[in-house]
């Protein structure tokens, strides 16, 4: 039955790591807007920082990120210098010295930075900001470019959580996605991290990859469980070769179909919950005592451009080329081109090139979508009261949701929506009902399943 419903609702929809979503950002007419937003922030509230490193030693063909391959280190070292300059530029635009609750390094491959360059960027952050007592400092790691020296540098710089890219442990699948990484290599890096005091570990796995079967997914989960990560993110491969041309290296006829993708996702979810993990929203799993599970239980889970998060800060400042930031006033995205990004920063400017100012309607819809993505439930009466809006605001959406209700994907009790077990994999399609930007012609998205 779920395969029939997936076929019915499997239209391209955003991943809803923000609302409005990135395809609707517009070029800034006024370079001073972002500076004004920064200057208007409340110093009594902590912020978070996301740093993007758009370099890899080798291109993974499934990758949907802003990155490029470099065989030489010089461009990476030069980029680290620009990161340091941007941090100083941003700090100078703020009205005071702020506290940071989360730092997250993403990419690309942030672990491509040398030990010295990584520590130097973290040192500049410490020079310009203070950390909250429980601050999380996380980095995404490619085990293929990490050694003992680099892990020691991460620990010395204060990193306390690491996410390891795994995807799948089947060597044939690894060859098909151009990412060969043995179980032994991954286990070795896990041991290095723990030996250096970095004990909070996440694994990123994928389903829907070329040549992948349900048995492959189950085996990868079993092997991952042997290494005991605190969190597992299980992403469905989004095949968008019109956006990322390297995805054309993946053969369409080797990709599993919708029904097989659903089997892989449900098998993985069942297996992970049997192993003791709690399912978080659409595609994350965490041990019961992990901060993410606690946040879910307390209805404090959030969602941002890194996916599900415990980061409760209203402001996330994006550092690095293509990096996206969120502020109370709206979203901003830095120049995607590393050349243009460097040019802006080295002339003492901010790097934000586009973004969007959020309206009152955007904010209330963002709250509804975030709660659905995180809690799989939302009380529309509570949300409208919270934002001082009439209860009739979402009358049209409630009518549109009745088809989902009829198909058993959600329940409607008054104005409370609750996504059913069958509807979990289609929660993005349910969220899309509240998206007034969808269909306006900006951008193409991956399918819901």
Compact summary:
By secondary structure, the chain is α/β, with parallel strands linked by helices. It has helices at 2-9, 32-39, 74-93, 115-128, 148-156, 171-176, 183-195, 214-226, 258-274, 291-297, 338-346, 360-375, 380-386, 395-406, 427-432; strands at residues 26-27, 47-53, 55-56, 68-69, 99-107, 130-141, 161-167, 200-207, 231-236, 278-280, 284-286, 302-304, 307-309, 316-319, 324-327, 330-334, 352-357, 377-379, 410-413, 416-419.
Description of the structure:
There is one protein chain. With 449 residues, the protein is an alpha/beta fold. It folds into two domains: 21-357, Alpha-Beta Horseshoe (pyruvate-formate lyase- activating enzyme); 360-432, Orthogonal Bundle (Arc Repressor Mutant, subunit A). It has 15 helices and 20 strands. The strands form five sheets. The chain has a nine-stranded mixed β-sheet, sandwiched between helices. The mean pLDDT is 94.
Features:
9-stranded mixed β-sheet, 4-stranded antiparallel β-sheet, 449 residues, Arc Repressor Mutant, subunit A, alpha/beta, single chain, pyruvate-formate lyase- activating enzyme, 2 domains
């Amino acid at each position: 039955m779920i395969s029939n419903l997936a076929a019915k609702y499997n239209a391209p929809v955003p991943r809803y790591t923000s609302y409005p979503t990135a395809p609707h950002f517009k070029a800034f007419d006024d370079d001073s807007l972002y500076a004004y937003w920064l200057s208007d922030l409340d110093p009594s509230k902590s912020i978070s920082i996301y740093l993007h490193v758009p370099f890899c030693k080798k291109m993974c063909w499934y990758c949907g990120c802003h990155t490029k391959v470099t065989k030489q280190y010089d461009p990476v070292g030069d980029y680290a210098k620009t990161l340091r300059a941007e941090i100083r530029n941003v700090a100078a635009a703020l009205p005071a010295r702020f506290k940071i609750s989360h730092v997250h390094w993403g990419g690309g491959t942030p672990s491509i930075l040398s030990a010295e360059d990584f520590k130097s960027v973290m040192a500049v952050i410490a020079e310009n900001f203070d950390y909250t007592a429980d601050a999380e400092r996380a980095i995404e790691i490619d085990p293929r470019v990490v050694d003992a020296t680099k892990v020691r540098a991460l620990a010395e710089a204060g990193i306390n959580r690491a996410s390891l890219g795994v995807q799948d442990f089947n060597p044939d699948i690894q060859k098909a996605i151009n990412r060969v990484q043995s179980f032994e290599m991954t286990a070795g890096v896990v041991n290095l991290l723990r030996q250096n005091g970095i004990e909070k570990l996440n694994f990123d796995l994928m389903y829907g990859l070329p040549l992948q079967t349900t048995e492959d997914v189950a085996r990868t989960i079993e092997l991952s469980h042997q290494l005991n990560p605190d969190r597992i993110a299980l992403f469905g491969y989004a095949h968008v070769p019109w956006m990322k041309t390297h995805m054309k290296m993946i053969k369409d006829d080797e990709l599993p179909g919708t029904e097989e993708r659903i089997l892989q996702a449900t098998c993985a979810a069942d297996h992970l919950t049997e192993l003791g993990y709690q399912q978080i929203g659409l595609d994350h799993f965490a041990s019961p005592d992990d901060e993410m599970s606690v946040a879910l239980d307390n209805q404090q889970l959030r969602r941002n451009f890194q996916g599900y998060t415990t980061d409760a800060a209203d402001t996330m400042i994006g550092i690095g080329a293509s990096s996206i930031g969120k502020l109370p006033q709206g979203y901003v995205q830095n120049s995607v081109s590393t050349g243009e990004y460097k040019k802006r920063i080295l002339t003492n400017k901010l790097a934000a090139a586009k973004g969007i100012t959020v309206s009152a309607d955007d904010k209330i819809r963002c709250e509804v979508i975030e709660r659905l993505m995180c809690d799989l439930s939302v009380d529309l009466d509570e949300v409208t009261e919270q934002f001082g809006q009439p209860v009739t605001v979402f009358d049209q959406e409630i009518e549109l949701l009745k088809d989902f209700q009829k198909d058993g994907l959600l329940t409607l009790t008054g104005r409370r929506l609750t996504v059913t077990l069958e509807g979990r994999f289609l929660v993005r399609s349910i969220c899309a009902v509240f998206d007034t930007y969808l269909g306006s012609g900006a951008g193409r998205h991956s399918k819901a399943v």
